[in-house]
Amino acid sequence: MVSLRTVSTALGGGVLVAALLLAPAGPAASDDHDGDGFTIEDPRITESSGLAASRAHPGVYWTHNDQDEPRVFAVDGRTGETVATVTLRGVGKPRDMEAVSVGSDGNVYVGDIGDNLDGSWSHVWIYRFPEPKRLGDQTVDATQYTVKYEDGARDAEALMVHPKTGRVYIASKNEDGGGLYEGPEKLSAKGTNVFRRIGEVPWVTDGAFSPDGTRLVLRSYFSARGYEWKNGRLGADDRVRAPILGQSESVTYTADGSALLFGTEGESSRVVRVPVEGTGAEPAGTGGPSPRPSGSSGAAASPGDGGGGDGGDGEGAGSGLAVGLVALGAALLLGFRRLRGGRGGAGTGGGGRSS
C-alpha cells in the first residue's frame, strides 16, 4: 500500500503539512474506553490495514499489518490490548495483506491482495483459518487460495465474506473508481479462483457486510458509502457517516450490527465507533451523535464520490475542513500519479511466490 507519508515525500512535504493540520488530535469524546472506540495498544501493530469483528469472541476484533509475517492479532475492543497473536502455518510469505473478514463458516479470511504497482502481480492470495475457540498466542493451519481477476491484475484493499452465503468479494482500488469482484461459489485450494467484476465502486480502502447481509459499506480515505445488497448485487447507495482519520484503512460492523468501527494506520492507532442510523445506538457516555474529530462536521468526498461531508449538522469550520480535504485529496492523487510514473520501470521486487 502507498502510504500518505510516501506521497507527501513525492510532493515535497506539502501534503504531509496539510495532513497534520487536518488530521484529528484525538476523539471528540473522552479517551477512556467507554464504547466510543478504542486505541490499538500493541506496538507491533503499526499498519492496521484490516478490521473484522470476531464471531466466536464478542467484543474482540481481528486486525493485521499489511507488510508482515503471516500473522493476525485479536484485539479487545474494551481495552485495545492484544489478546491473541495467531501465526498462520502452511502459507508463504505475504506480500501485502490488506483485508480481513470473518465468515459464517467459522473461518477467518485474510486478503493478501494489495498491489502498489496496480497490476504487477499475476495473482494474489487469500488465507483462511478456523477462528480459534480459545484466545491466546498460537499457530494454526491455514489454507492458501490463489486468486486472479477475470479482467486482469489490479490493486485491491477490501475483501468481504457475505455472512449468509459465505461468498467472497473483493473491491479493487483505483483513483478513477474501482470494481466489485465476485469469487466462485466455493473457493478451491487446488486451482486458480477467478473473480469476476459485477459492479462499479468508488476508490475503496476497505469494506464490510452488515451482519444480516442486507447492506455493504465501502470506505475510502475521506468518506464511506453504503449499498443495499439484493440477490448478490449492489443496490441503491447513500452516504455513510465516517470520521476523518489520518490514513483511513479499515471498517467493520460490530457483531450486533448497531455500529461501524473505522480504523486507521500508525502506532497506537485509533478505532472510532459510529452508530448505525436507525438502530437507536449511541456512543456510551455521550448521549448524542457519534464522535467526530474536533472542529469537523463530516467526511469529505473521495475520488469518484460526488459531494462532500457526511450529512452532518455542522457548517462553518466543517465546510472549511471539507474544502481543505478536497484540496488534500487532489494533492494525493497527483502524488500517486507521480509515484506510478516514477516507478513504472521498476521490477516487482521481492516477496513473490509461485502459486
Describe the structure.
The chain is mainly beta. The chain has three helices and 21 strands. It has helices at 4-10, 14-22, 317-343; strands at 37-39, 48-53, 60-65, 71-76, 82-89, 99-102, 107-112, 124-130, 138-141, 143-149, 156-161, 168-172, 178-182, 192-201, 206-209, 215-219, 224-230, 233-240, 248-253, 259-264, 270-275. An eight-stranded mixed β-sheet has the order 6-7-8-10-14-13-12-11, with no helix packed on it. The radius of gyration is 19 Å and the shape is globular. The model is unreliable at 3-34, 283-327 and 336-355 (pLDDT under 50).
Determine the N-to-C terminus distance: 22 Å
Order of helices and strands: HHEEEEEEEEEEEEEEEEEEEEEH
Poorly predicted runs are 3-34, 283-327, 336-355
Give the helix tally. Answer: 3
Class computed from helices, strands and strand pairing = mainly beta
- Give the overall pLDDT as a whole number: 78
List keywords for this structure.
5-stranded mixed sheet; 35% strand; 8-stranded mixed sheet; mainly beta; 355 residues; disordered N terminus; 21 strands
